[in-house]
Design brief:
The chain has a domain at 65-201: Four Helix Bundle (Hemerythrin (Met), subunit A), CATH 1.20.120. Helix 1 (2-49) packs parallel to helix 6, helix 3 runs antiparallel to helix 4 (94-124) and helix 3 (65-90) runs antiparallel to helix 6 (170-202). The mean pLDDT is 93. The protein is an all-alpha fold. The chain has helices spanning 2-49, 59-62, 65-90, 94-124, 133-166, 170-202. It is found in: Cell membrane. It is a multi-pass membrane protein. GO terms for molecular function: cytochrome bo3 ubiquinol oxidase activity; cytochrome-c oxidase activity.
């Protein structure tokens, strides 16, 4: 009888833990929805203001497409490697999971480095955030995406340390899945940035 009640208590604990993880995942989805609204607003603002160059530099004069294509390739590859990390996790392979997360983090860092170099080049050309409404909208939109990638990197490094210490548990599993979802989301946002800001800018 005591054995049955112990089992029952253990099942209840597991069920409660599972419910807690589900709630946290639901909370994360809500966060992503607010992010969609944020980026939607920034895109709408950019589209309205992109013609207001205030006699300053235009997108055609500023955007260096080879660098942008490199950034896109790097970010798309990092999305693929984050998917491989999730597959390794489902196979229970901690080393491969950590390896693919490390590759994803390096690619993310390379993306941010290129973006910072692009911003520095533009500022040196006299195209600062205060030069025109177009540039204010540009730096806000692209910079917000870059900030999200940077936060994702900090999260990824913290999660790698946690995985190294605790291994693959229901908690770390949820965190890896949420992180991968977040990373894919940033990839989709970047495709919109590439199309709306860069490609439409130089065309």
């Amino acid at each position: 009888m005591a054995h049955t009640s112990a089992n029952h208590g253990h099942d209840a604990h597991d069920h409660g833990h599972h419910d807690q993880e589900s709630m946290k995942t639901f909370g994360f989805w809500l966060f992503l929805i607010t992010d969609v609204i944020l980026f939607g607003t920034l895109f709408a603002t950019y589209i309205v203001l992109r013609g207001n160059t205030n006699a300053g530099p235009t997108p055609e004069e500023l955007f260096q497409m080879p660098g942008i294509i490199a950034e896109t390739f790097i970010l798309l590859t990092s999305s693929f490697t984050s998917g491989l990390a999730v597959l390794a996790m489902h196979r229970g392979n901690k080393q491969q999971l950590l390896g693919w997360l490390a590759v994803t983090a390096l690619l993310g860092a390379a993306f941010i480095t290129l973006e910072v170099m692009e911003f520095v080049h533009m500022v040196n050309e006299g195209a600062t955030i205060t030069t025109s409404a177009f540039l204010s909208a540009f730096y806000t939109l692209v910079g917000t995406h870059g900030l999200h990638v940077s936060l994702g990197l900090v999260w990824m490094i913290g999660l790698m340390l946690q995985l190294r210490k605790r291994g693959i548990t229901p908690v770390t599993k949820r965190k890896v899945e949420n992180l991968s979802l977040y990373w894919h989301f940033l990839d989709v946002v970047w495709i919109f940035v590439l199309t709306v800001v860069y490609l439409m800018g130089v065309m």
